[in-house]
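hiii, so i know i said id send this last week but things got crazy w the move. better late than never?? heres the sequnce for the chain we talked about at the cafe, plus the structure i predicted for it. fair warning i was half asleep when i ran it
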Amino acid sequence: MTNTLIRTEKLCKTFSSGGIQQHVLKNLDIRLVEGDFTIIMGSSGSGKSTLLYAISGMDKPTLGEIEFAGQIITKLNNDQLAIFRRNHCGFVFQQIHLLDNMSVLDNVLASGLLIHKNKRELAKKAKELLLQVGITENSWAKFPTQLSGGEAQRVGIVRSIINSPKVLFADEPTGALNSASSDQVLDVFTKVNREGQSIVLVTHDMKTALRGNRIIYLRDGTICGDLQLGMYSESAMRYEKLQHFLAEMGW
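okay and structure toks below
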């Protein structure tokens, strides 16, 4: 039995500029399932990031309802949304927002201490997670500027999951990385998802999209395609299925 984690009804987002209204999201009805690795794709301006920001509580929709983990978050004020995000959401972006004046380990601990009070237990968990993503002990005292892009992004993922979020949200997390670093980061996403972490990830990259088990394709603020890919595996059939789907979408 699958559990709906995020539900939207008639979700709309409109921006106004110079007296002209731009309808970025148009009456979206979505059900996102617990444990899924959901990929959101679409051309530039299709509403991908806007949708991610809405369902994660980072931005408020113009109209519609969002239920997240049993709570109607569209009824929350800004302070309540901030608390909700801190308790239930993790975020990874293209730009890696680590604090340059703090070590790798302290960057992770700083995020965890917002919720956890036992620093010793938290440090144990942080070290275990860093090791799991290939950040070894000789890097824990380094500063972010001493890391490669791929290493820094893997630290960013650990920081985002240290509080065991309901959903890990990611917006083009490999967009600024080279191919080798991108593969390492994608391997981490795949690993944490197989361990039960729900993920919603926005991308325009097919290699990244292959990691998801569900692909939602947006066009002009509406859903025009929804593909079930199943659990990730490196297979020509998987690649061809996604390639065919994206060709149908006009990608």
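btw The chain has eight helices and ten strands. thought thatd interest u
miss u guys!!
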